[in-house]
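Exercise 3.2. Students should predict the tertiary structure of the chain below and write it as structure tokens, then compare their answer with the key that follows.

Predict this chain's 3D structure.
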Amino acid sequence: MDTTPAPLSRLQTLPSWLLGRAAALGHRLVGEQLAEEGVRMPHHAVLCGIAELGPIAQAELSRIVRIDPKDMVTVLNELQAKKLISRTRDPRDARKNALALTAGGRALLRRLEELGDQANEALLAPLTPDERKQLSALLARLIITK
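Answer key:
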């Protein structure tokens, strides 16, 4: 009698597979919430980065939020068209633009934070508060050490 587990049974026990599925679920839940405000995840990442680090140069922000510079141009153009960010000359280097949030960008980011919290609450609903803290701590250890 063959006692080898079925391929999916084995696959579904791999931490890498489980993390990937959890990440996909988290992205879907957050993406659906952000879409309510007409925003995609790269928009949210850029708004968060500017809010925390701004005014900031476009190239620096691209590196920090890990968005390809070519894609960053599109994201920034979309945010600027919606009057959510401003581009001004960087006082430290006139060849660069400094990015900052507008009042509308700050207001939208506050709404997006609430929507993101709702999505993360749905994602983590099966876990107790202590399990949520433990999961976050363990995931942070995995990604910070790499």
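Discussion points: Residues 7 and 88 are 55 Å apart (CA to CA). Helices lie at 7-11, 15-35, 41-53, 58-65, 69-81, 103-124, 129-144.
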